[in-house]
């Protein structure tokens, strides 16, 4: 995998050895920074695929703080390379969400494996996040009410149309609350409440002519569809409630 790497190391000898080793592994070196502020500035200018960061850096903040800023401002993965194995330092480092933490001394092969697998995982997660954000925007913009619930009937997503139909203010957080608290459906003929449990094995259920009673005490005649979500061949324990309006 062709990759541009920014090295952040204040020790000139260590930086030179790392530069030579990474080039021999086939990577391009975007630059070498010696402090946190310089690392941030060079990240902005070079936009590397990954930053290899020493933790103990001179100046106003260390490598962990630099990594936090780089992730927040540029969304570029960071790999820590440090001789520091103190538990408190490692906890701080892990909290900055790096793709890895390698203790010195290290082997070139172990470094290569961490870089390749870490960057691949990071890019895969970024693509998934991008698709989820796109889907969220798409579902939020349609006129039909859409709700996603888990197998325990807790709300995992709700669009603005569903908020309006159910009589819920948009500023009210309903995430992880039971669907029964907000979506109350009744059979039009018998008036019997429609239960949300017992349908876990179903793929798609169509219900027609149901009655919805919302938070504003309004009675609305609706039609809705309950579909079990799937990803490829994998069936997820999440369900999509849509087309109730």
What does this structure look like?
It is a single chain. This protein has 245 residues and is α/β, with parallel strands linked by helices. It folds into 2 domains: 4-134, Rossmann fold; 142-244, 2-Layer Sandwich (Beta-Lactamase). The protein is 35% helix and 29% strand. A 6-stranded antiparallel β-sheet has the order 7-6-11-10-9-8. A 5-stranded parallel β-sheet has the order 2-1-3-4-5, with helices on both faces. The longest helix is centred in the middle third of the chain and has 34 residues, at 108-141.
Which key features would you list for this structure?
single chain; 245 residues; alpha/beta; Rossmann fold; Beta-Lactamase; 6-stranded antiparallel beta sheet; 5-stranded parallel beta sheet
């Amino acid at each position: 995998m062709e990759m541009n790497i920014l090295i952040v190391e204040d020790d000139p000898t260590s930086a030179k050895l790392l530069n030579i080793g990474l080039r021999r592994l086939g990577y391009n070196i975007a630059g070498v920074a010696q402090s946190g502020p310089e690392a941030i500035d060079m990240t902005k200018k070079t936009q590397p695929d990954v930053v290899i960061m020493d933790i103990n850096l001179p100046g106003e903040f260390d490598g962990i703080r630099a990594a936090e800023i780089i992730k927040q401002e540029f969304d570029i993965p960071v790999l820590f390379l440090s001789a520091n194995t103190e538990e408190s330092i490692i906890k701080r480092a892990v909290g900055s969400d790096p793709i890895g933490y390698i203790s010195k001394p290290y082997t070139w092969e172990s470094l290569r494996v961490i870089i390749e697998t870490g960057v691949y995982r990071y890019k895969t997660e970024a693509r998934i996040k991008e698709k989820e954000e796109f889907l969220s925007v798409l579902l939020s913009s349609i006129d039909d009410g859409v709700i996603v619930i888990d197998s325990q009937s807790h709300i995992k997503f709700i669009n603005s149309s569903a908020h309006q139909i159910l009589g819920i203010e948009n500023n009210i957080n309903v995430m992880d609350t039971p669907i029964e608290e907000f979506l109350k459906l009744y059979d039009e003929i018998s008036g019997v409440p429609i239960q949300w449990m017992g349908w876990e094995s179903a793929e798609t259920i169509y219900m027609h002519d149901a009655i919805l009673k919302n938070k504003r005490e309004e009675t609305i005649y609706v039609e809705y569809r309950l579909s079990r979500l799937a990803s490829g061949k994998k069936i997820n324990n999440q369900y999509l409630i849509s087309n109730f309006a």
